[in-house]
């Protein structure tokens, strides 16, 4: 019954004694996908007895466990709660909702009970019910930290009439969005609908992997929940279809990927093919080449594509030359011997043998003639993380004519503080426990970017390089940036971005505020920090970042410091010192 992945459940008010009958009857009649039901009822005597009797158990068999979320008793008896979790695990319930975390909750005692339960019982996640209101996130964060960031703790976020910023909640392990029936209003025909502002908020959550619960308020005990379920499905049907680029990238949301090592490893054909699907990127490259060809004073222009791969830039270079109406000699240089086979095939079938093919490393090949235009696509998600500076230094020194043009002409790296429980947990589990000092390429989604990205450093290739071969000290960098936090949050690391000037005013960017439309070749970088840091509104976060190089390795080091308004401060360690976890090989 789920529409486009949307799952809608119901939580009836009052006690349901027979969960199996409710699932087979009322839940299915309401067209719901699941129900939230108490695990037991009137079962206090079970603790002394040591077991439940049949009449105390709500869901008695595993037949309907897949479509029931359990609701635990109050915190009055932790032994009863432990027995309920054991029963839930035995029956096969996928999750159990803990009692509400409210403003009156003793947070330390609540956290202690949660931690004891998840430490002593089988792997059923506990879902903490929180009402979205002022101070709610701070309460959740304190409980989460007291529990040591337990991955089996999740959130059921109940929305209401309180107007509060929910941005930070999208960085939390929210599994359920709870909508009490009192949130709805009747339309002209008497059917329940949401106000416009509530509709917008629900649609934002529909872009996340959450399920919805229609909770029957006590004052609405007589309403028919089927109309609420149908309305949510209707609302999902009004969502705009994602762009082709967004659809292509969706499967990579929050998936950690190790950055490429293109100088150490030869890329496979499938990897080239994935990048070649990004037409907007190549449209910009083609426009930049056409402009550079038009501006060149040479009668016959020599254009070199270095790191040609399977030839997408070569195709665009030939097209740019035709559009500019100029004579252009195109030379393609590629060190991957397998890719060179593909280049030969394309030269015969597509390019009419117009292209001179060279199998060489651009850093060491000495040509008989130099390039008027040198084109590469060596940029990584952080601009320089695939060693574009190192490659283009050598290429410009050996290949570029005195008045030659390099495309790209320059590029810059940016960072912003980031909160994401999911990304941090995945980094912690990555690489046998060493993953928190390694940067990743990731399509960041379940996250909250806490401030606008700021510039770290840049590289420019506007003239032939005069650097000494083998000396890379000039490509080392160190930068510091300070950010002011606007809302309560937990810092899990840094998001990294880049932008580039290809030629003149032709630019590429993956920064959120200037992102090149529909371009999807690059996802941002994620630099985790080992110990998450709590930040309050008005706090200052200072980011230190280094780009270091020694012998045949280049790497990043990073640290975060916080300074509160009341003189409180905290510092992370300097991550990846001396490349002890991650480096890029030359």
UniProtKB/TrEMBL annotation:
> Which Gene3D superfamilies does the annotation name?
Divalent-metal-dependent TIM barrel enzymes (3.20.20.150), Hnrnp arginine n-methyltransferase1 (2.70.160.11), Vaccinia Virus protein VP39 (3.40.50.150)
One Pfam family for this entry, by name?
Answer: PRMT5_TIM
**Which residues are annotated as site, described as Critical for specifying symmetric addition of methyl groups?**
275
The PRMT5 oligomerisation domain sits at 410-584
Q: Which UniProt keywords apply?
A: Methyltransferase, S-adenosyl-L-methionine, Transferase
Q: Which residues form the active site?
A: 377 (proton donor/acceptor), 386 (proton donor/acceptor)
**Does the entry feature the keyword Transcription regulation, yes or no?**
no
A single GO BP term for this record reads: regulation of DNA-templated transcription
CDD domains in UniProt: AdoMet_MTases
In this chain, S-adenosyl-L-methionine is annotated as bound at 272, 281-282, 334, 361-362
Q: Which GO terms describe its cellular component?
A: cytosol; nucleus
Q: Which residues form the PRMT5 arginine-N-methyltransferase domain?
A: 247-407
Q: Which one of the record's GO molecular function terms can you name?
A: protein-arginine N-methyltransferase activity
PRMT5 TIM barrel domain mapped to chain residues: 78-235
Q: Which family does it belong to?
A: Belongs to the class I-like SAM-binding methyltransferase superfamily.
Descriptive protein name: Protein arginine N-methyltransferase
Organism equals Coemansia aciculifera
